Amino acid sequence: MLNKKLYILFDVTSSNINRIVLPIANKLIEAEGALVIVLSESLVETDSIDYTSFNSSIIFSTKKKININFNDFKEKKFVTFGYRIADLYLTYKFKKLGFYTYQIQHGMYQDFLKRSFKGYFSNMPKKKYYLKCLIKLVFTGNLYIFIYLLNKDLFKSYLLNNFLIKNNSKLDSIQSNKVFVWGELWKNWFMKNHFYKINDKFIIMGNPDFHKFVNNKKQNDVKVCYIAQTFFEDGRIIKSNILDYIENISNYFQEDLYVKLHPRSKKSLFSKVLDNKGKIGYEFPKAEVYVGHYSSLLSLAMNTNALIILIKINDEEIPDYFLNNADFIFETIEDFKLFKMPNQYKPKEKNINKYFLNTNIDTLDLICENIN
After folding, report:
1. Residues 101, 176 contacting (CB under 8 angstroms)
2. Whether the Cβ atoms of residue 170 and residue 93 lie closer than 8 Å to each other
3. Measured distance CA(75)–CA(97) in Å, rounded
4. Of 272, 320, 337, 338, which one's alpha carbon is 20 to 30 angstroms from that of 45?
5. Rounded Cα distance, 175 and 65, in Å
6. Residues 290-302: tens digit of each pLDDT
């Protein structure tokens, strides 16, 4: 059995498991003698996992219930899709067990994401699981890990960031051996915010959304597309505030509006769009105008000749690479309400590829080739 490969993959949400984890698992299990396990820990809503669409040989299990001997495998690989407390804890544990570890960028990241403490632990299973992981990481006795965790999600201090950059070798135990990023400049982001070193192994995989929504796909044509994000679903904004944004955007564009839903969007939030004869859906269309805040899908819009409108929300900062490529930027939804769309306007020249590279090679194939 020593010639077999063992792959263990983990994410914290069923939507991400369906969207990216299982397609990767499906390809990895095709290798001769490969065993693939997807961790379905207690914080994952397992009822929402799309089991039937993927290879039936993929095993779903919690870490505690895995009843195989890891030493029976010649190659052991652990794959995660973020840097949340649970990702870091499991990376730490599997590295100690002799696994080679990978992290795959799953979206657009910010220096310090605004999140209320209540929103961070927005459901009971997540609260219990994250708290357990946090306590176990604290009890590793590594002061630098403790400072990193507090700063990442609570203090958000650039002074502490600079301290950790100078001591980045102390965080090796929670860092992945190899990181897949969407574009060249994300390497710098990981070094600045998660204290990876310049000689760490980064692989540019390109923008996976390009292959999912655009490349070789038939796209519908719409006049205006609003790209929804999960501010309310993630506990980062109260319901009345997000409804105010949606209502005003819908009232402005009326029946011309199409809302590109997030996989975790609560459809009931968009009833005003339907009342105004607009449409909602999960497909990414070709549009004359794209409206959004800072969703990674804006990178697809910015690789077209469309007009890009950004509206700040919840006092959150919009990354410079989006600000520099937008045609109109509004500080508040009230400012947007007063905006008069010009009859003729030539969209500005845009350059987003250093962060969101559109590649000829399918990102799924590239990931699996480099993990195998």
Report:
1. yes
2. no
3. 12
4. 272
5. 25
6. 999 999 999 999 9
In what order do the strands lie in the sheet containing 34-39? 59-61, 34-39, 5-10, 75-80, 100-104, 178-181, 201-204
**280-283 LR contacts (CB < 8 Å, sep 24+):** 283/213, 283/219, 283/220
Question: Tokens in use for 78?
Answer: 């652990």
Report the distance separating Cα 160 and Cα 313, nearest Å. Answer: 27
Name, in order, each residue with C-beta under 8 angstroms of 46's C-beta and a sequence gap of 6 or more. Answer: 14, 40, 60
Residue closest to 153 by CA, chosen among 192, 114, 110 = 114
What residues contact residue 194 under an 8 Å CB cut-off, 6+ apart?
83, 171, 175
* Residue 284: DSSP 8-state: -
Which of 286, 280, 302, 290 has its CA nearest to residue 219? 286
State the CB neighbour count (10 A cutoff) for residue 267. 12
pLDDT of residue 337: 96
Q: Are 259 and 270 in contact (CB under 8 A)?
A: yes
Compute the distance between CA of residue 229 and CA of residue 233 in angstroms, rounded to an integer. 9
Q: From the CB of residue 77, how many other CB atoms can be counted at a distance below 10 Å?
A: 22
pLDDT, the chain, mean: 93
Alpha-helix residue ranges (DSSP H) falling in the chain? 14-16, 22-28, 85-96, 117-120, 124-138, 143-150, 158-166, 186-193, 208-209, 239-253, 271-275, 298-301, 320-323, 333-337, 363-371
DSSP, collapsed to helix, strand or coil, labels residue 181 as strand
Q: Check: CB of residue 90 under 8 Å from CB of residue 130.
A: no
Q: Check whether 123 has a pLDDT greater than 70.
A: no
Residue with tokens 């029946």: 255
Residue with tokens 């632990």: 121
Q: Is-contact 106 186, C-beta < 8 A? A: no
The candidate with the shortest Cα–Cα distance to 243, out of 234, 231, 254, 255, is 231
How far, in whole angstroms, is CA 349 from its chain's centroid?
27
